[in-house]
C-alpha cells in the first residue's frame, strides 16, 4: 500500500525526523491561507505540490515554487482544476484533490536515503547516495559506485556505527554528521515499526550555514512510503491513510472480493487460479498469437460470489473470448464449474468461453459442465494448456 | 529415494482444527501420508475428525508421536511463532502453507532459525512438499497410493512415483508457484516421467529453502535423474541458481520462467529494483539460465517435453 507525500511527511515528523513547515489542503482558498502563514513566518518562498501517487509531477507543472499569495492562488487553481498527465499516469491523467503547501528551503547539498526489503540478503537494506534530488535509477545506471548499501541486522536493525560510517562516506561534515545519523536511525526504526516495504527520502538536504546552525540543518524534503499489505492488520493508523481514489477502480473492486486483477490491453479475458499459472496463461496466449486482456488470479479459496464477480469484471473489459484455466489444489474444480454455470445464467456468455480444468474434483466439474452445455452454447472444453491457448486464440481472432 | 520426506515420515498439522488444516489433514491421510496428530493450543487431549490426537504444543506432539515434519495452517499473524515453535521442538521439515505472512516476520524468523540448524522451512505461501507414493489401485483422482508422503495442498493423483513411471526415470521439482507446479508435474507424469520429490518454495520475497539448497539435495539423491525448476519475474534467485547449476550440477535441469508478458512496474518499489543490480525480467532470467546450460522451455505447455528431451 502506498501513501501520499504529505502523509509520509507526517510519519517522518512523528518519528522525530525534521521536515520543513507545511500542511495538506483541499481548496484554493486554504492553499492561499497556508501560504500566507508561511510567508508571515519568514519563508521567502513556498512550494505547492500536487498530492498524487504517480511521479513526474515537476515536469508536468504540478510542483511550483511561489513568492507571493497571488502566485500561490494561481498555482493551486491550476493544479486543482487540471488533470495531471505524466509518463507515470494513465493517458487521461489524474484528478488532483489534495495539495501540499510547504516552506521552501535553501539547499546547499542534496542526498538520497532509503530503506527497502532486500530479498537477496534476506533482510532490510539502507540505500544512500550523495547524488540526491534525482531518480535513483538514473544514478544507479550512470555511477553505480555512488550508491551505498548498508544491510540492516534482521533482529537488531540499523546500528549506530553503520549510520556513522554511512554519514561520513556520504560526505557529511561537522555538526551535519550527528543530524544525519539521527535521521538514519529514526528512519530505520520507523520502517520496522510500520512494516514498511519502502521508505524513501529524496532529497535529504542540508541548508546553507545560518543562525544556530553553523554547518547547516539536515532536512527531509520529499517522502515516499510503501507498506506490506500483509501487515496492515497490526497498523490501523497506516491503514487509515489508504486513498482508494489513487487505485484503478476495477482492480480495487477485484481486491475487495479477494481477487488479484490487473487490466491489460488485449482482447482475451483470463480467469486462472494461482499467480504463476495466471502469468503463464498470459504468456502462452501471447505465444499463440493472442493478446491477454487481463491478469486475474482467483486465489485458492475464492467464494462463489468472488468467482461470479471475476466473470463480471472480465466481461466489463469488452473481451472477444475468455479462457478459464484452473488447476485445482485448494480450489476445487467443481466449484469453478458451478460458478461458470451460475455466471452464464446471471450475466450470459455471448463470447466464446474456453474452459480448461484439471486437478481436485475434476471429474465432478466435467459432469457439471456437461449437464450445462445447452445453457452455455459458446463454451468449448479444452484438453490441456496448449489446446486451450490454441482454441481461445482462434476464437478471439474469429470474433475480432 | 527422495529428498526431505518419504513414506516413513511422521507428520503433524499445526492448526489442525481450522477449516483448511482439517481439510488438508484429511487429504494427506487419504494419500497415505503418516499423519500422526495435530496441534491447537487449548484443545490438547481431544481428537480431530480422523481420530488423530490433538496436542497443546508442538513439543507435546513430538514427544508423543515422534513426528519429524509439520504442516502449518495457522493464520498469518501467528505463523512466524508457529514456525519457531516447530523448530524449537526439534521438527526437521517445517512446511508453512499459510499465505499472507508479513515480510518482516519472515526476516526475523530466518534470523532466529540460525539457532536450529536441523530445521528446514519450506515456504511460506506454498503448496508444500510431496514425495509421490506407488499407485496400488484405481485411476486418476480415485487412485490409491502407498509409501508416499504428501504434506500440503497439492492434488496427489497428478504425481507419479519412479516405480510407476514408464520411462523408468524420475525428476525433482522446485517451484516458486503453486498451480504452475501442478501443471509441470502433470505434464511430466503424462510423459511417463516420475517425480522423486516436488517442493513448492513459495511465492514470498523472504522464504525458507531456496533453489540452490534444494538443487544440492537433488544432485545428491541417487533416484533423481534431473530437476525441473520453475521461477518467475522478480528477484535474482533463478539467475543465482543458474550459476550454481553451471558449476555444480551433473544432472540435467529444465526450467520455465513465468511472466514474460507481465506489465512492468506493477510489482516493486523503485529502490527494490536496483538492489540486485541485475535485470529481473522473465526474458533476462531465461537468457541467464540458458547460458548456464539449463534447458529452458519457451511455453508453459512444454515444461514436460523439455525435461524429457533433456533426460534423453
Task: Describe this structure as you would to a colleague.
The complex is a heterodimer of chains A (400) and B (312). In chain A, the strands form four sheets. In chain A, strands 5, 6, 7, 8, 9 and 10 form a six-stranded antiparallel sheet that branches. Chain A contains 13 helices and 16 strands. By secondary structure, chain A is an alpha+beta fold. Chain A folds into three domains: 1-20 and 106-247, ATP-grasp fold, B domain (D-amino Acid Aminotransferase, Chain A, domain 1), CATH 3.30.470.20; 21-104, 2-Layer Sandwich (Dna Ligase, domain 1), CATH 3.30.1490; 249-399, Succinyl-CoA synthetase domains (Rossmann fold, 3-Layer(aba) Sandwich). Chain B has helices at 19-31, 58-65, 76-88, 103-112, 179-190, 211-220, 237-248, 270-275, 282-291, 303-311, and strands at 10-14, 34-39, 54-55, 69-72, 93-96, 120-122, 128-131, 134-137, 144-146, 149-152, 169-175, 193-200, 226-232, 253-258, 295-296. Chain B has a seven-stranded mixed sheet with strand order 10-7-12-11-13-14-15, sandwiched between helices. A six-stranded parallel sheet of chain B has the order 3-2-1-4-5-6, sandwiched between helices. Chain B is globular and about 55 Å long. Chain B has two domains: 10-122, 3-Layer(aba) Sandwich (Rossmann fold), CATH 3.40.50; 160-311, Succinyl-CoA synthetase domains (Rossmann fold). The model of chain B is unreliable at 267-277 (pLDDT under 50). Classes of the chains: A alpha+beta (400), B alpha/beta (312). The interface between A and B is large, with 70 and 65 residues.
Amino acid at each position: 500500500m502506498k501513501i501520499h507525500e504529505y502523509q509520509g511527511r507526517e510519519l517522518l515528523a512523528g518519528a522525530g525526523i525534521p521536515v520543513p513547515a507545511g500542511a495538506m489542503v483541499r481548496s484554493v482558498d486554504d492553499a492561499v491561507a497556508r501560504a500566507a502563514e508561511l510567508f508571515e513566518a519568514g519563508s521567502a518562498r513556498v512550494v505547492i505540490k500536487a498530492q498524487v501517487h504517480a511521479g513526474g509531477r515537476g515536469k508536468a507543472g504540478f510542483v511550483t515554487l511561489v513568492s507571493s499569495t497571488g502566485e500561490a492562488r494561481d498555482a493551486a487553481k491550476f493544479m486543482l482544476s487540471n488533470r495531471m498527465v505524466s509518463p507515470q499516469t494513465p493517458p487521461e491523467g489524474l484528478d488532483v484533490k489534495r495539495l501540499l503547501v510547504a516552506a521552501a528551503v535553501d539547499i546547499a547539498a542534496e542526498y538520497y536515503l532509503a530503506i527497502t526489503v532486500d530479498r537477496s540478503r534476506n533482510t532490510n537494506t539502507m540505500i544512500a547516495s550523495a547524488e540526491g534530488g534525482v531518480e535513483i535509477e538514473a544514478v544507479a545506471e550512470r555511477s553505480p559506485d555512488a550508491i551505498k548499501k548498508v544491510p540492516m541486522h534482521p533482529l537488531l536493525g540499523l546500528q549506530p556505527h553503520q549510520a556513522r560510517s554511512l554519514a561520513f562516506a556520504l560526505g557529511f561534515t561537522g555538526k551535519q554528521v550527528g543530524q544525519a545519523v539521527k535521521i538514519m536511525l529514526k528512519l530505520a526504526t520507523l520502517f520496522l515499526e510500520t512494516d514498511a516495504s519502502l521508505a524513501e527520502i529524496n532529497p535529504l538536504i542540508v541548508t546553507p550555514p545560518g543562525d544556530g546552525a553553523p554547518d547547516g540543518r539536515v532536512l527531509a524534503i520529499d517522502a515516499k512510503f510503501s507498506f506490506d499489505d500483509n501487515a496492515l492488520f497490526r497498523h490501523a493508523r497506516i491503514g487509515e491513510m489508504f486513498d482508494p481514489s489513487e487505485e484503478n477502480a476495477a482492480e480495487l473492486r477485484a481486491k475487495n472480493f479477494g481477487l488479484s486483477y490487473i487490466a491489460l490491453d488485449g482482447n482475451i479475458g483470463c480467469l486462472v487460479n494461482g499467480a504463476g499459472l495466471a502469468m503463464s496463461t498470459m504468456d502462452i496466449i501471447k505465444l499463440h498469437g493472442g493478446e491477454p486482456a487481463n491478469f486475474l488470479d482467483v486465489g485458492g479459496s475464492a467464494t462463489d460470489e468472488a468467482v461470479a464477480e471475476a466473470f463480471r469484471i472480465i466481461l466489463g473489459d469488452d473481451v472477444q473470448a475468455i479462457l478459464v484455466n484452473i488447476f485445482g489444489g485448494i480450489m476445487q474444480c467443481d466449484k469453478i464449474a458451478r460458478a461458470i454455470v451460475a455466471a452464464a445464467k446471471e450475466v450470459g456468455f455471448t463470447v466464446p468461453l474456453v474452459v480448461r480444468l484439471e486437478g481436485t474434483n475434476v471429474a465432478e466439474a466435467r459432469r457439471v459442465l456437461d449437464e450445462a452445455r445447452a445453457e452455455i452454447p459458446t463454451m468449448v472444453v479444452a484438453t490441456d494448456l496448449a489446446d486451450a491457448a490454441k482454441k481461445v486464440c482462434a476464437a478471439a481472432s474469429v470474433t475480432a | 529415494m527422495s529428498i526431505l520426506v518419504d513414506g516413513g515420515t511422521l507428520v503433524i498439522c499445526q492448526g489442525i482444527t481450522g477449516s483448511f488444516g482439517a481439510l488438508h489433514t484429511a487429504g494427506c491421510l487419504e494419500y497415505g501420508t503418516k499423519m500422526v496428530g495435530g496441534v491447537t493450543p487449548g484443545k490438547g487431549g481431544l481428537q480431530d475428525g480422523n481420530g488423530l490426537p490433538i496436542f497443546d504444543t508442538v513439543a507435546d506432539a513430538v514427544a508423543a508421536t515422534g513426528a519429524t515434519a509439520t504442516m502449518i495452517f495457522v493464520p498469518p499473524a501467528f505463523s512466524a511463532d508457529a514456525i519457531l515453535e516447530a523448530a524449537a521442538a526439534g521438527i526437521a521439515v517445517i512446511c508453512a502453507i499459510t499465505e499472507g505472512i508479513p515480510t518482516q516476520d519472515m526476516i526475523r524468523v530466518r534470523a532466529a532459525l540460525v539457532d536450529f540448524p536441523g530445521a528446514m522451512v519450506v515456504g511460506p505461501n506454498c503448496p508444500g512438499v510431496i514425495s509421490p507414493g506407488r499407485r496400488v489401485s484405481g485411476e486418476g483422482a480415485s487412485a490409491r497410493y502407498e509409501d508416499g508422503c504428501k504434506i500440503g495442498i497439492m492434488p496427489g493423483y497428478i504425481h507419479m512415483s519412479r516405480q510407476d513411471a514408464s520411462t523408468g526415470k524420475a525428476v525433482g521439482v522446485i517451484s516458486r508457484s503453486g498451480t504452475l507446479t501442478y501443471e509441470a508435474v502433470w505434464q511430466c507424469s503424462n510423459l511417463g516421467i516420475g517425480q522423486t520429490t516436488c517442493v513448492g518454495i513459495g511465492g514470498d520475497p523472504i522464504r525458507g529453502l531456496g533453489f540452490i539448497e534444494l538443487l544440492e539435495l537433488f544432485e545428491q539423491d541417487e533416484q533423481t535423474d534431473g530437476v525441473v525448476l520453475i521461477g518467475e519475474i522478480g528477484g535474482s534467485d533463478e539467475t543465482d541458481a543458474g550459476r550454481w547449476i553451471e558449476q555444480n550440477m551433473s544432472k540435467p535441469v529444465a526450467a520455465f520462467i513465468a511472466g514474460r508478458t507481465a506489465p512492468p512496474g506493477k510489482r516493486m518499489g523503485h529502490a527494490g529494483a536496483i538492489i540486485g543490480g541485475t535485470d529481473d525480467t522473465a526474458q533476462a532470467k531465461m537468457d541467464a539460465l540458458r547460458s548456464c546450460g539449463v534447458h529452458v522451455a519457451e511455453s508453459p505447455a512444454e515444461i514436460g517435453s523439455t525435461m524429457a528431451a533433456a533426460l534423453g
